[in-house]
Amino acid sequence: MKKYANAVNVLPKELVAELKKHYTGMLYVPKGNHYRERRKLVIMLHDQKMDAKEIASIVGLGIRRVHQIIAHECGKVHHCKGLDKKMY
């Protein structure tokens, strides 16, 4: 679920005024590439033969989510170094 906030309540008045010069209406502000970088780290650690429990601890995810990322990325490149058949 997305969290919404009124710009007037979270941004400085000067910034709100500047934004209004360019756009009025609902505006989406993405978080950045934090998730993409974390996914890359999961795959890199997996390729170095680190087990899912260790990876989960390092990147701050659950073991199941680590397995999901690995499975998704391995499916995209049609190979996976050291991916077990039984993941859960």
Description:
The protein is mostly helical. Helices cover 58% and strands 0% of the residues. The chain has a domain of 44 residues. It is built from five helices and no strands. α3 runs antiparallel to α4, α3 crosses α5 and α4 packs across α5. It is elongated. The C terminus is likely disordered.
In short:
Helix content is 58%, strand content 0%.
Largest beta-sheet characterization: none
Q: List the uncertain runs.
A: 84-88
Mean pLDDT: 82
Number of helices: 5
Label the overall shape: elongated
As a percent range, the share of helical residues equals 55-70%
| Strand segment tally | 0
Write down the secondary-structure element order. Answer: HHHHH
- Whole-number radius of gyration? 19 Å
Could you say which structural class the secondary elements and strand pairing correspond to?
mainly alpha
Distance between the termini: 26 Å
| Assembly classification | single chain
- Tell me the strand percentage band: under 5%
